[in-house]
């Protein structure tokens, strides 16, 4: 069921929030043992929320009344364990709601639980989690992508009709692509980050993961807009997304960046994108080749900027105010020992690796060669996009260079893992919005995703193009056999 | 450049993380590989290009300096590994013998 379908059932009084909640609870009970998409879950609380909503009734102004939504484990929900899938935050129950959670609750959503992820969103496979890996519903020997792997896998397996993810370098779009669902990385500043546990503050954005573009627009509508508690959240009006969905794409100018078909892109992925472009032409859009010449620098720039910011953001996990603290051994422990040992025990290997790398690029003697240079290249990458958007309205690329890979395949080779984000991370560096949606399957039945990119705050265009594509295809209606 | 386990140890000390000998060795190799890949950034022509630390053209976002309720102290302190009254408790900071 999509969000629109659930809303239609409510409108016709053919279902109650409790009945809808039971449907998803049943799916969770059947499928979760195979998929492992949840970091935390309490069926009792789900039922309670549904009952309370029923009591209050479907009053006006609650656009998500009775809609179940799963939340990624790095977005604070008051009183609910929120741990970033890390031992260092074990037992943490936030004393406040993230702005997006507050807005979902106010809109009448039912919170289904917390979704598994790569620890602190460091990863592209959902294998770096203290709860163990999530599996891809289309092939459980493969990864769901990451870091929002639990969110995407739960939506694909019909355990949740919608989920929240966060995207720093592709963490919403790549798992959406791997799981055959829709994922939106909004413009930097479109949605408040208040209550999102920070990874890289200049890149992080929260966004929806759903089965249809229409549903993604519905969630974005509720979450977007100014928040005085996040000074980087833009003070700009939020357009009516439902209205933009209805507009035809005749005359829309699409661009295909030639750098995004490097030899690293799987031929099956390339074929699916070519077919999608043909379909867009049939729907009345024009397609031309464009160039984003600094694309080759995106991965190195990203892994400098993101790890530098992460090493600084993760300094707050020190065993003092929340989470894990190392037990003192025999004799008394100094404050210094308490810090270093709590962090040793609390962080997993990828977090330690990134903190170390971030510390390196910021350390005196290396700062100019690495961090300062990366910030300048970031400007060049942003200028590439500005220039492309003078020629076209929207860019079309694959979301990930390959279909989902196998569990364990890249775990011990961090660089290869980082390269699986090659088509998504420029978008975060430039701060522009991008939408991933299913655009085909490989002969062995693995999903392939397409990425649409627009200029800052032009999410409407993404919804319009995505909706037109989904209106003419049925990839998003396929269901994994579970 | 070559990163040695000794270099990783220095970085770990700066970042306040204890790493095992095995981790020091493994990370040295992996960081070395990542940094050699990152080296290619040096080829980018950046003379006269301003740095971007932030993508939005924002500066000095102000709000009114108004009294607002703070987080509930008890809920905040409930997360502390160790507390004493309304305080977070940590090991002794100043060595009385030193």
Number of separate helices of chain B: 3
CATH superfamily of chain A: Amidase signature (AS) domain
Unreliable stretches of chain B (pLDDT < 50, length at least 5) are none
Mean pLDDT of chain B, rounded to whole units?
A: 91
Helix-strand string of chain B: HHHEE
CATH architecture of chain A: Alpha-Beta Complex
Biggest interface: A-B, 72 and 51 residues
Structural class of chain B: mainly alpha
The total beta strand count of chain B reads 2
Explain the layout of strands and helices:
The complex is a heterodimer of chains A (482) and B (98).
Chain A: H1 3-11, H2 17-35, E1 38-40, H3 43-56, E2 68-72, H4 99-106, E3 110-115, H5 149-156, E4 162-167, H6 173-179, E5 182-185, E6 205-210, H7 213-223, H8 241-245, E7 253-257, H9 267-282, E8 286-290, H10 298-313, H11 335-346, H12 349-362, H13 368-391, E9 394-398, H14 414-419, H15 425-430, E10 434-441, E11 447-454, H16 459-472
Parallel strand pairs in A: 2-3, 7-8, 7-9
Antiparallel strand pairs in A: 1-3, 4-6, 5-6, 5-10, 9-11, 10-11
Helix pairs in contact in A: 2-3, 5-6, 7-16, 10-12, 10-13
Chain B: H1 5-14, H2 21-38, H3 73-77, E1 83-84, E2 87-88
Antiparallel strand pairs in B: 1-2
Helix pairs in contact in B: 1-2
Write structural notes for this entry.
The complex is a heterodimer of chains A (482) and B (98). Chain A is built from 16 helices and 11 strands. With 482 residues, chain A is α/β, with parallel strands linked by helices. Chain A has one domain: Amidase signature (AS) domain (Amidase signature (AS) enzymes, Alpha-Beta Complex), CATH 3.90.1300. The radius of gyration of chain A is 21 Å and the shape is globular. Chain B is mainly α and 98 residues long. Chain B has a domain at 5-43: Orthogonal Bundle (Histone, subunit A), CATH 1.10.20. Chain B has a two-stranded antiparallel ribbon with strand order 1-2. In chain B, helix 1 (5-14) packs across helix 2 (21-38). The two termini of chain B are 41 Å apart. The chains are: A alpha/beta (482), B mainly alpha (98).
């Amino acid at each position: 069921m999509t969000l629109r379908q659930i809303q239609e059932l409510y409108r016709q009084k053919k279902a109650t929030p409790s009945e809808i909640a039971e449907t998803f609870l049943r799916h969770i009970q059947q499928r979760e043992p195979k998929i492992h998409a949840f970091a935390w879950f309490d069926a009792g609380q789900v039922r309670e929320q549904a009952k309370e909503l029923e009591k209050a009734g479907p009053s006006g102004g609650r656009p998500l009344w009775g809609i179940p939504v799963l939340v990624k484990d790095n977005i604070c929900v008051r009183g609910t364990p929120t741990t970033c899938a890390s031992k260092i935050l074990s037992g943490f129950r936030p004393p406040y709601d993230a702005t997006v959670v507050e807005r979902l609750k106010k809109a009448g959503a039912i919170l289904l639980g917390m979704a598994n992820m790569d620890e602190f969103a460091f990863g592209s496979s959902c294998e770096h989690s203290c709860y163990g890996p999530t599996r891809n519903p289309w092939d459980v020997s493969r990864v769901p992508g990451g870091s929002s792997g639990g969110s995407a896998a739960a939506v694909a397996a019909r355990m949740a009709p919608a989920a929240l993810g966060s995207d720093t370098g592709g963490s919403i779009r790549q798992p959406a692509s791997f799981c055959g669902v829709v994922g939106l990385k909004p413009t930097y500043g479109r949605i408040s980050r208040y209550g999102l546990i920070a990874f890289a503050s200049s890149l992080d954005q929260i966004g929806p993961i759903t089965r249809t573009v229409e549903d993604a627009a519905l969630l974005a509508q509720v979450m977007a807009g100014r928040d005085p508690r996040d000074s980087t959240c833009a003070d700009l009006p939020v357009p009516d997304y439902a209205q933009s969905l209805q507009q035809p794409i005749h005359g829309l100018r699409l661009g295909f960046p030639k750098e995004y078909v490097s030899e690293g892109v799987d031929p099956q992925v390339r074929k699916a994108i070519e077919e999608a472009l043909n379909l867009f032409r049939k729907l009345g859009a024009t397609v031309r080749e464009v160039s984003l010449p600094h694309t080759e620098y995106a991965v190195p720039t990203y892994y400098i900027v993101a790890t530098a910011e992460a090493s600084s953001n993760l300094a707050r996990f020190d065993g003092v105010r929340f989470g894990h603290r190392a037990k003192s051994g025999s004799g008394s422990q100094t404050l210094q020992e308490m810090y270093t040992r709590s962090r040793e025990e609390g962080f997993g290997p990828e977090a330690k690796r990134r903190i170390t790398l971030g510390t390196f690029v910021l350390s005196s003697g290396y700062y100019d060669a690495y961090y300062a240079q990366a910030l300048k290249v970031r400007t060049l990458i942003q200028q590439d996009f500005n220039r492309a958007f003078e020629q076209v309205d929207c860019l079309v690329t694959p979301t990930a260079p390959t279909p989902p890979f196998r569990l364990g395949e890249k775990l011990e080779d961090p660089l290869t893992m980082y390269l699986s984000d090659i088509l998504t991370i420029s978008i975060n560096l430039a701060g522009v919005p991008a939408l991933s949606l299913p655009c085909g399957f490989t002969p062995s039945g693995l999903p392939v995703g397409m990425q649409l990119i627009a200029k800052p705050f032009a999410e409407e265009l993404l919804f319009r193009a995505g909706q037109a594509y989904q209106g003419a295809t049925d990839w998003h209606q396929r269901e994994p056999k579970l | 450049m070559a990163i040695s386990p000794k270099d990783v140890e220095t970085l770990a000390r700066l970042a306040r993380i204890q790493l095992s000998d095995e981790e020091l060795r493994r990370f040295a190799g992996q960081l070395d590989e990542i940094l050699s890949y990152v080296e290619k950034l040096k080829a980018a022509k950046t003379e006269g290009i301003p740095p971007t630390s932030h993508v939005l053209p924002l500066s000095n976002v102000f709000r009114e300096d108004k009294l607002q309720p703070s987080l509930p102290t008890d809920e905040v302190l409930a997360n502390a590994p160790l507390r004493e009254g309304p305080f977070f408790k940590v090991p002794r900071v100043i060595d009385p013998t030193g």
